[in-house]
Design brief:
This protein is an alpha/beta fold and 272 residues long. The protein has an eight-stranded parallel beta barrel with strand order 1-2-3-4-5-6-7-8, surrounded by seven helices. It is built from eleven helices and eight strands. The structure holds 3-methyl-2-oxobutanoic acid (KIV).
Length: 272
Amino acid sequence: MSTAKKEYKRVTVKSLIEMKQNGEKISMLTAYDYSMAKIVDAANVDVILVGDSASNVMAGHETTLPITLDQMIYHATSVIRAVNRALVVVDIPFGSYQSDPKEALRSAIRIMKESGAHAIKIEGGIEIKESAKRILQAGIPVMGHLGLTPQSIYKFGTYTVRAKEETEAEKLKEDAKLLEKLGCFGIVLEKIPAKLAQEVAESVSIPVIGIGAGNGVDGQVLVVHDLLGMTHEFNPRFLRRYMNLYEEMGNAISQYVTDVKTKDFPNEEEQY
Ligand code: KIV
């Protein structure tokens, strides 16, 4: 397959659909702050996800449930200031959309208006149909999220692979078709069998981005802190670490401590 690709100065939801049509894989990574988003954007990542995984990665919570809408807007605002090229998608957090579609719309509007984000992501299929519809009617691009949906962790009980059984796999396929029909511009599939993910990707015209969903989908997403090895206790099979920043940063900081203690830092050149 050819690797020549069209240049996108600014990635839009339309560009992503075009990439799928052209067989170009889509790259997506999380970022939650200005400095990281600058690096991720400059590296030509197509989509930056301000994920509610910020709840785990940035705030140290065990789940994604505690993060608030205000906190998501804060993270998204910082990311937006850094980005020139990528499409910025923001997770609509737990508790800000489940009550009713009007609440969902209000939350989505706040994200778009206050942060300047380009799209929102929402977890669920048939359960969020009316909310997704309302948000889409307001002209806000919506990305779906199926499979392992971390906001429902207490319903699932574990973070293991989803949709291995027929009934759940069938529901997932129907949910994907529903999200496409509603007008979503893409779907994230998290931690499901690769064969099922490929089947879903081939059955819809919108891009399907996988995390732990194999290589037969239209793109991949990872949490940037995992990719860089800043987190070291999380070791799922799907994760490829490109660096071991946990160790490298630790070593650098230890060296700094030594240099201060031994009065090596600052030296003659490092002072006024
Ligand atoms: O919040 C997040 O980082 C996500 C990705 C894992 C897809 O939803």
